[in-house]
Specification:
Length: about 290
């Protein structure tokens, strides 16, 4: 067991670090130098700058996220499912010195081709904090993960967050809109549409038509669209995983509230685990298990 380590969540656009002592994060730092935004610096230089004053030769650094992708610092191979939960921490990729990367997970079947990188660490933590048979990790690419008490068996991805952003920024749905506002009623109305009809393609143009015709306030389009997309995602995935009863939702406060509203609407009870809490619990279990 190692009592002191550094946990790194290094995605495409952001980088977060925690100095941990005896399982508790005592300090944290944040940078916008995600793996695609290094601004000419090497990953090693960025990491050294972010963790200055934290490191010594005996302090392991455990990293997860896109830092281990084929555009990252060093590629950490995907582990094919099914994989034991303990198996994630046993297959770290060594980078240099005391620096290690957590592997991603993959599914490669004729009916499902999928990859996870970063969420596997949150998943490991969520399993310890709120064991379940179905885990939902919303975000840019939402993950729905089926597991049992020992293994991760399957997962699917929904590009809900990315689709919302693309539609508002780069299509007629969002063309010429004013600044958007928080509008719970608009979200709820969109959610009802998405839950009732998850075949969402015909609805997307109706979003534009609704505000052109005055049926939807122009400053509430983002909220209504969010409801439509989340509703469609939840309806489709809840049908696919209809046999899974216990559910754990891993997300920050805003997304957790939206997905919980959607899941409540279809009668699915969930336990919520905050995303950073799950990540730190996952990294902690890896650091303690491998004793690097």
């Amino acid at each position: 067991m190692t009592s002191r380590y550094i946990a790194i969540d290094w995605g495409s656009t952001n980088l977060r670090a925690w100095l941990c002592q005896n399982g508790t994060a005592t300090q944290s730092r944040h940078s916008q130098q995600g793996i695609t935004r290094l601004n000419g610096q090497t990953p090693q230089a960025v990491l050294a700058e972010l963790t200055h004053g934290w490191c010594d030769s005996d302090t392991p650094i455990i990293m997860a996220g896109m830092v281990g992708s084929n555009v990252g610092w060093k590629e950490a191979p995907y582990l094919p499912l099914p994989v034991t939960l303990n198996g994630i921490g046993e297959r770290l990729t060594h980078v240099t010195g005391q620096v290690w990367i957590v592997p991603g997970l993959s599914v490669n079947r004729s009916d499902n081709h999928n990859v996870i990188r970063g969420e596997e660490t949150q998943l490991l933590g969520a399993y310890q904090l709120a064991p379940s048979s179905l885990y939902v990790l919303p975000g840019t690419h939402s993950k729905w993960v089926q597991a049992d008490s020992e293994c991760i068996n399957d997962f699917r991805t929904q590009m809900t967050g990315e689709l919302h952003d693309v539609l508002l920024r780069h299509t007629l749905v969002g063309a010429g809109l004013p600044p958007q506002v928080i509008a719970p009623q608009a979200f709820s109305e969109g959610l009802t549409h998405g839950l009732n009809d998850p075949a969402v393609l015909p609805m997307l143009f109706e979003v534009r038509a609704a505000y052109v015709l005055g049926a939807l306030p122009r400053e509430q389009v983002s909220e209504f669209l969010s409801g439509v997309l989340i509703g469609a995602e939840v309806a489709a995935m809840a049908t696919l995983y209809s046999g899974q009863q216990a559910m754990t939702l891993v997300a920050g406060a805003n997304l957790a509230a939206r997905y919980r509203q959607a899941l409540d609407a279809i009668g699915r009870n969930v336990t919520v685990v905050e995303g950073d809490t799950a990540f730190q619990a996952g990294i902690r279990s890896i650091a303690y298990a491998v004793a690097i």
